[in-house]
Amino acid sequence: MMSYGQQQYRKTQVATVDRGRLIVLLYEGAISFLTKARAAQSDGDVPKACNLINRAQDIIDELNASLNLEEGGDIATNLRRLYLFMGDQLVQAKVEGRGEPVDGVIKMLTTLNDAWREAVAKPEAQEVLSRRGAANSTQTRDTVSV
Predict the structure, then answer these.
(1) One CATH from 2.30.30.140, 3.40.50.1000, 1.10.260.40, 1.20.120.340 for 18-144
(2) CA-to-CA distance for 136 and 95, rounded, in angstroms?
(3) How far apart are CA 75 and CA 34, in angstroms?
């Protein structure tokens, strides 16, 4: 469990980060929760696993809600489908108590995270994201606290 100071630092980090880096942080948070959920499943701790999966689902829901389908075109539409599929997989993991759906979602999130990291490292991406970030800021909750 994080100390109060660590939690405040994390909140400040999230509040002051650019939009592209925020998306990376959200992916990392969801991956972290699902990795911990997988360990809890292996230990037979169903309530803990479900809680952690729920936290990852909250992040995926936030990512989905932040999509701009008009400006994002096919990419945003495909991401929406992927986020909905991930949500379905995580529900299946909770209902059936199986780890394979969680593993699949971790792989998908890791692939997306790697792509976002690469994209936000490019200067032209920073310019586009900073313009959009001013118009469409993503709301985050304590779901990012890892």
Answers:
(1) 1.20.120.340
(2) 35
(3) 24
The one-digit pLDDT tens for each residue of the chain (146 residues) are: 567 766 655 555 545 457 888 999 999 999 999 999 999 999 999 999 999 999 999 999 999 999 999 988 999 999 999 999 999 999 999 999 999 999 999 999 999 999 999 988 877 666 665 665 544 444 444 444 44
Cβ-proximal residues to 105 (8 Å cutoff; 6+ apart), any chain: 34, 56, 86, 89, 90, 93
Q: How many CA atoms lie within 13 A of 93 on its CB side?
A: 30
Dist. CA 45–CA 39, nearest whole Å:
9
Six token digits for residue 4: 């109060």
